[in-house]
Amino acid sequence: MTIAPIEVTALPNGLRIVTDPVPTVETVCVGVWVGVGTRHEPAPVNGVAHLLEHMAFKGTRRRTALDIAAEIENVGGHMNAYTSRENTAYYCKVLKEDAGLALDVLADILQHSVLDDAELTRERAVVLQEIGQAHDTPDDIIFDHFQATAYPDQALGRPVLGTPEIVRALGRGDLCRYLDRHYGGRGLVVVASGAITHARFVAMVAEAFAELADRHEPETDRARFVSGEYREPRDLEQVHLLLGFDGVGYHDPDFYAANMLSTVLGGGMSSRLFQEIREKRGLAYSVYTYASAYEDGGLFGVYAGTGEADLSELVPVLADEIAKVARDVGAEEVDRARAQLKASLLMGLESTMGRAEQLGQQLLVYGRPVPVEEMVAKLDAVTPDRVAALADRLFTARPTLAAMGPLSRLEPFDRLARRFAG
Hints:
Layout: E1 7-10, E2 16-21, E3 27-34, H1 48-55, H2 65-73, E4 78-83, E5 88-95, H3 99-111, H4 117-135, H5 138-150, H6 164-169, H7 172-182, E6 188-194, H8 198-208, E7 228-233, E8 238-246, H9 255-266, H10 272-280, E9 286-294, E10 297-307, H11 311-324, H12 331-348, H13 352-366, H14 372-380, H15 384-395, E11 400-405, H16 413-418
Parallel strand pairs: 2-6, 7-11
Antiparallel strand pairs: 1-2, 3-5, 3-6, 4-5, 8-10, 8-11, 9-10
């Protein structure tokens, strides 16, 4: 069987169309990735990108909110969306014969949403409940507090959901202005992965998005990581602790090394932190690391959830393990991390949703599809010395700390920060 290649076509209005034919499946994932998110919001309307994502499903000139949901579910498909700090996505997964319907619904909600005031009142209440739920979930909201501390007074540090005060004040005009400014052809990528052909899909998109203007005016300040701390004493059973460092962005030569470092240090049950902190010492039920990349920077974070009695022992051990990885990284653990990352990458390709999301992100970040072979080659090129050198680069600077729970045994921030002084 000959498998058609991934193809990209740009329309005159700047809209990019990407197809990823997968002839062995009977479904297709159709999605639109928009190159703006929380980071592109002015401070007075923080949360508008997320609220707009909700409101897109609440009715168009041709469809009610029920029509939007029912038309996709009537054919057995499903539809969803999400907002992140740098982009927003809307997608449907349907049987191959319903690709045209999925595209028509997506094009309709992104071009013809009425943003009805009554619907806005209801959906604003839903988002306020979502914010309340996040605040009631310590191992969720701690990440927002960490982000705000690492990027103070910056769009990158503001919460995706917004704040209750701002969300209550957001009106239809705010949504319309954000939509008109950012949802233009040059800022959107339409992706189809699955049982689809490129020429047919391009023709469908050109017709469905015929009214889309070419505007796209994202503005944001550059990422400026700041060392600092956030502490919130709460009457909880556990302390939720997040320790982080200035990381690397998508375009950094060490992007793949950062993912390798995260896997070695805290990326699974065989990782250093899991083995030392949970398995050997029993100091935390949950401990892991993550590497978040942005266009111009990134974060390297270490999360741990522990009991109050173990907190004073946990922090020195955590700091010691983080420092150790800068001095010595073994070939065996790097090979294991490489295998984990390759497996995750290749397993993700078994899902048309995963394939579509990867392509949407790649077009927004790099302006092109990145072949799997290229990503695997870059993983193969990462050596133990390179991982150790990156750890030395990241972990010899003052960190940022966010902690929530019973904190009486958490050492002063300056003492903790000195553990990482290079």
